[in-house]
Design goal:
There is one protein chain. 79% of the residues lie in helices and 0% in strands. With 492 residues, it is mainly α. Helix 7 (115-145) packs antiparallel against helix 16 (378-402) and helix 8 crosses helix 12 (251-282). The longest helix is centred in the middle third of the chain and has 50 residues, at 149-198. The radius of gyration is 22 Å and the shape is globular. 58% of the residues are buried.
């Protein structure tokens, strides 16, 4: 295993080195939080694919393939569909807003009264997303080094917190690009063909497994519908995803770069399901489906290749973890803390804003590590996160983009009613039940429409300013970083 260990150590050292390099570029709020809004198509596509394809998509996607066969691809497939929908229909408008958070978008659209409550819901979502990714370090480091769970979480989490705190979005972008390449080589180009060959090829796989393993709808229609509702719609409104859209240098980059990333996700979904199906042939009696990835890597891959594929799994977890962490810290600082204190920073205090956001990443990172140590169930934590996100924020966000009659009162009612309904229904039906997100979303929609129609329309001046920002004609107040960025070539 010495060669495998060396591959992992070199990879982790490279992540820290890129964090240090990113710190030298992140000199303003815009550079630190959204990479100066200067990413070109290649870098944007790679980093967007990296953040949406995390440990759940890699380890969990293979596990679903082990359990259900090819239809196990649906969870990751719906993530890809959501990214495609966001890129084709909404990303250009979102990028033109030149904001930092989803709550800032809601304030622009509804007149400045939806920020704190929506920020609290988004903060809870991004925190739990970061926690679930951090818990996954325990699985990977256990395979690598037979390491204690708490120590594994502290080690993996500390590396992510370090490079994210140092360079903000620039560090995360650089590390995500490397992670994208490592995942592509490790999972798609190495593990996929090796797993199929070791299982005897597709003909042998079909001979060894029940026919339902090759039914594209074998996982069940209700499950597929729930995946669409949670993951496809979740991709449309998550702060972690929007913050990547804000990094695009142009509308075209956001649209076409995101489309490429979404298409890549569809291929990754199928690859994970096929690897899981091959693992079922090789190891038909594993205690847990989620052990399929680690088992096939550990037992079937040659030395060196095994280290690279495990680095790919680590890359998948780190990309999602770092993206969720910076999103969580951005929301906590800009949407909650600054608003509660009534802080309005004068333009020009760029260095102070970088320090403040850096401090919040460190603080949120410590909170994520502590929470990850205390929790065990990744699936439950992730379900809570997406239920709150979709049930509480989907309607007011899409309503604001698509329906001009929506009002601030309607948005606030929608967030409150949807969020409380989801929490109450999870307590009644159970966290993993489908009913909380179904009924919570319906309650949120009903509250939004009813209250919006019952209250005065949004002020015409607010709507006019909103339309100007959507068209990219209004000033974005994006601070002095824009002047700096004009002197530096856009990242490709």
């Amino acid at each position: 295993m010495a060669v495998d260990y060396l591959v992992i150590v070199v990879y982790l050292a490279g992540m820290l080195a890129m964090g240090w390099w990113g710190m030298r570029r992140a000199k303003s709020k815009s550079e630190f939080l959204v990479a100066g809004r200067r990413l070109g198509p290649a870098m944007y596509s790679g980093t967007m694919a990296a953040i949406v394809l995390g440990g759940a998509s890699t380890i969990g996607g293979v596990g679903l393939g082990y359990q259900y066969g090819l239809s196990g691809a649906w969870m990751v497939f719906t993530i890809g569909l959501g990214l495609l929908a966001l890129s084709v229909f909404f990303s250009a408008r979102i990028a033109r807003l030149k904001v930092y958070t989803v709550s800032e978008m809601l304030d622009l659209r509804y007149g400045g009264r939806a920020g704190v409550i929506s920020g609290l819901v988004m903060w809870a979502y991004t925190l739990m997303l970061a926690v679930t990714s951090t818990i996954a370090y325990a699985t990977i480091f256990d395979v690598l080094f037979d390491m204690n769970r708490t120590l594994a979480i502290v080690l993996g989490g500390s590396i992510v917190v370090a490079y994210s705190t140092l360079g903000g979005m620039w560090s995360i972008t650089l590390t995500d690009m490397v992670q994208f390449v490592v995942k592509t080589i490790g999972v798609l180009l190495l593990l996929l063909p090796i797993a199929v060959v070791k299982a005897g090829g597709f003909a042998e796989m079909k001979a060894q497994l029940p026919t339902e393993y090759f039914d594209p709808l074998g996982i069940g229609g209700e499950t597929i519908f729930t995946y669409v509702l949670i993951y496809t719609f979740g991709m449309l409104i998550g702060q972690d995803i929007w913050q990547r859209v804000f990094t695009a240098r142009s509308d075209r980059t956001a649209r076409w770069g995101g489309t490429v990333a979404g298409t890549y996700c569809l291929a990754y979904a199928v690859a994970g399901a096929v690897i899981g199906t091959a693992a079922k042939v090789l190891y038909p009696n594993l205690a847990s489906a989620d052990d399929a990835f680690a088992t096939i890597v550990k037992d079937e891959l040659p030395v060196g290749v095994r280290g690279l594929v495990l680095a790919a799994a680590l890359a998948a977890v780190m990309s999602t973890s770092s993206g969720a962490l910076i999103a969580c810290a951005t929301v906590a600082n800009n949407d909650i803390w600054s608003r509660l204190r009534g802080i309005v920073r004068p333009e020009g205090e760029q260095h102070d804003e970088v320090k403040g956001n850096r401090a919040f990443i460190l603080l949120m990172g410590l909170a994520v590590i502590a929470t990850a140590i205390a929790l065990n169930d990744v699936v439950q934590a992730l379900t809570v996160a997406y239920n709150l996100l979709v049930g509480g924020l989907l309607v007011p966000i899409l309503g604001g983009l698509l329906w001009k009659r929506g009002t601030a009162q309607g948005a606030l009612a929608s967030v409150a009613v949807g969020g409380l309904a989801v929490i109450g229904l999870m307590a009644t039906y159970g966290i993993l039940a489908n009913e909380p997100v179904y009924y919570g979303l319906l309650a949120s929609l009903a509250a939004y429409v009813a209250v919006s129609l019952a209250t005065r329309p949004t002020d015409a001046a607010v709507l006019a300013a909103w339309r100007e920002r959507l068209a990219g004609r209004a000033p974005a107040h994006d601070n002095a970083s824009e002047t700096v960025s004009e002197q530096v070539p856009a990242a490709q």
